[in-house]
Each structure stands twice: as C-alpha cells, then as structure tokens.
Amino acid sequence: MKSIQVGLLGIGTVGGGTFRVLQRNQAEIMRRAGRGIEIAMVAARDLDKARALVGQAAQVVGDPFAVVNHADIDIVVEVIGGTTLAKQLVLQAIANGKHVVTANKALLAEHGNEIFAAAHAKGVMVAFEGAVAVSIPIIKALREGLSGNRIEWVAGIINGTTNFILTEMRDKGLSFDAALAAAQELGYAEADPTFDIGGFDAAHKATILCSIAFGIPVQFAKAHVEGIQTLQAADIAYAFQLGYRIKLLGITKRTAAGVELRVHPTLIPAKRLLANVEGSMNGIMVKSDAAGITMYYGAGAGSEQTASAVIADLVDVTRLCSANTAQRVPHLAFQPDAMSNTPVLPMSDVVTSYYLRLNVADEAGVLANVTSILAKANISIDAVLQREADEVGGEGATQTDLIILTHDCVEARMNEALAQMQALKTVLAPIVRIRKEELA
After folding, report:
1. Domain containing 99: what range?
2. Last residue of a domain, which of 277, 311, 338?
3. Same domain, yes or no, for 398 and 309?
4. What is the pLDDT of residues 211-241, one digit of tens each?
5. Are the C-beta atoms of 8 and 39 separated by less than 8 Å?
6. Quick one: which H or E segment has residue 259?
7. Of 44, 218, 59, 32, nearest to 128 (Cα)?
8. Could you tell me the pTM of the whole model?
C-alpha cells in the first residue's frame, strides 16, 4: 500500500523532533499504522538549516502554501505556531481536502470552532493531541478512553514553566523574580515569559479540555485567567505549613448552572498526587461518574515529547483516513449536531474555597472584626493561622499576618467581604486571596 505523504509546516523544535522520531521509528510506526508515513515536503524559513536536517528525504520549500496546495500531500502537519498564518494554512489545507495535524493550542482555543466546522463539512480530520500536555495522551483519554463516562471536572498542571517556578519558590524559598530568572537560565522560560506566567498558555489548553469534556464549543474569551506574577514566597510557605501546595491550575467543572472554565494559582492538599507534580512536569486529574478520579502525568514540553503526540495523531489519521466519516471520533468528542449550548459561568458565579492573608495591626479586636465580616457574608471559616508579630516583622514589630482558610462560597460573596475587610483601618496592605480546591 502506498505510503501516506505528509507535508510539514515548520521544522524548528517540534518539527525537527517530529522528523527525527518518524525517521528513527519508521518500521515500528508502519507496523502500527498498516502503511508507511513519510514526510515528503517541508516548509521552512531557514532553507539551509532545513536541508541539513532532512537531507534527501524530503523536498524543502520556503512557501508553506506550496505544501498545503500540493496534490500529492495527504496530511498537513502544522507546527509553526501563531494564529494568523497558521489559521490561513490550516483552512486552505482543509479546503483542499487534506487532513491536518497540529500542536497549536492557541489556534484551536481561539479559532477551533471555525476550523472544526470546515473540516466536518469537507469530511477531513483535524488531530491535535500535541496541543495539550504533549507527552500525556489526555485528548485521547477524554475523547475515547472515558467516552462512557459523564465527566464532572478536569483539573490540571498544564504549563511546565510555571510549575518549575512554583517548585523553586517552595523548595528553595526563592522570590518569584529569582525563580523566573532560574527558569530562563535553564531554558524553561522565554525571554518574554508573559504567555506562560500570565496563565494564557494554560488557558488555551484548559479551553480545549473544557470543550472535549463537556461537548461545548471552544470559548477561550470566556475563560477566567490569572497568572503567578504576584505570588509571594510567604504565601507558598504559609500554604505549606497548613498542609497545602500552590499550583497554577487549569480547572473546568460541570455545575447545575453551567460550566466553569478558569486558570489561577490554587492551593491543593499536599496529600493529593497532583500536588506532588514537580519541576517542569505536567499532571491532569479527571473526575468522572463511572471511572472515578483518574490521573495523567508526564512531560508537558520538549521536542521529541511533542513529536510523540504529533506522530500518534499521524498514525490515527492514517488508520482512519479511508473510513466512513461517521466512524471517526468527533473532533470535540461529541457529534457535531449534539454539541451543547451550556453556558460558561462568569467567575463571580463560581463556588470554591479560599486562602486569605491579611497583613494587620497587632492589636486586640482585629480577628474579631474580620471574622464578623465573614460571618455576616455567610462565609464559614475552616482554619485560622495568626503569626506572632516578631515572627513576621522582627522584634518590636507592630503588624502581623493573619491567615484564614474558608469553606466553599460563591465568589461574588467573597468579593464583597474582601472589600469590607480591606476597608478596615487595621488591615495595612492589599489582602492576598488564593483559591483552594480539595480535588476529592
């Protein structure tokens, strides 16, 4: 049987890894796919560098549209990133009747509805395992392995850069700036790390997971996104003393009122497996009605790690490209005509629990005033930690830290209580609020 002909758009870190792994494991991949999978064309900006890598194995061109428009190409692999040119190329490939494999989470989170609709209309597949937690087959797990379940929630550490920074802050007591500098020195963080530390990368991935888990359109614009830039070493230390660890989580939950879609720093009990995912690794927990809680762990970035996911998609597409379209796994797990219009909830409607740190005057009545405000807001307290003033500010200090853990309440009510507490004259600095999830 004739080998599948692949056109590769981009041969940088991910594209180069894909080419190397496909060449190295060609025989094993053919045994699994049932036919050969060959990269026949490569589009690259640096032609000399690309030719040095691929040799005579593939034609190298500078124009990516030459690849998506070539009659002999069966599958287009897009690994150039971005959402402008990549979108044009993917839609052109689909219009030409070609299947697409992509690792571009931003493209799918922002334009996935248009792309999937075009692919469905044309009868081609768009595969994207490499777009989320690359070495972890979480897309396949949600779309296929758990297809007999009603998913209740998904919570994951899905950005390795931020997880490395938070691990360094906890283990070494580093400030955020020092931990970020260490991440940049080791190549975990870009020179401009905003996309990672601001939570946007995790939010793109969480948006995709949300759609697959609950069968709703991708809606990145409705995601609540907070990064880790303002986290302080003191809060990581206090959380540890209370039996928690702080992680940047992507969370999506099904509720009676709608679907939650949020990314923010989160306290997790230290005994949870997810709390012990360290360094640049990723981990995802899924709660479903029949399977219960399942956990997925692995590298969330890397050249060959991403290539592993891209090639798995190539194998899937190769196996199914001649199958009737009705026999293929739907892009977002649910049949297109069965997608739900369940709303994504605003953050003010989300119910969760909280860690609060108040820097307060060390005088009588402070705790009573704060707890009175929480009580009037019907917010119950789970635990309180009040430090001695000299432990926080040194001998003779007149202010201290008051740490409060709450039980669940709706965010809007917490926002009102925080505003009242902040207005107290004995509260001396902006209140730190970090959400808390038990994940049980």
Report:
1. 4-134+303-338
2. 338
3. no
4. 999 999 999 999 999 999 999 999 999 999 9
5. yes
6. strand 259-269
7. 218
8. 0.96
Cβ neighbours of 383 (radius 10 Å) = 12
Q: Are residues 252 and 317 in the same domain?
A: no
Instruction: Specify whether 45 is located in the same domain as 97.
Output: yes
Closest to 159 in 3D by CA, of 131, 128, 139, 126:
131
Q: Are strands 151-157 and 281-288 parallel, antiparallel or unpaired?
A: antiparallel
In this structure, what token pair is assigned to residue 225?
């996104």
For residues 120 and 99, what is the distance between their CA atoms, to the nearest angstrom?
11
Number of H helices and E strands in the chain, helices first, is 16, 17
The model's pLDDT over 277-302, given as tens digits with 9 standing for 90+, comes to 999 999 999 999 999 999 999 998 89
- 329 and 123 in contact (C-beta within 8 Å)? no
Could you tell me what percent of the chain has a pLDDT over 90? 94
Distances (CA, A) of 233 to 130, 224, 238, 336: 33, 24, 9, 46
Phi and psi angles of residue 410, each rounded to the nearest 5 degrees, phi first = -75, 140
In tens, the pLDDT along 176-198 reads 999 999 999 999 999 999 999 99
Would 314 be classed as within a structural domain? yes
Per-residue pLDDT at 394 exceeds 90: no
Of 157, 98, 93, 102, which is closest to residue 128 (Cα–Cα)?
Answer: 102
% of the chain with per-residue pLDDT over 70: 98
Residues with active-site annotation: 205
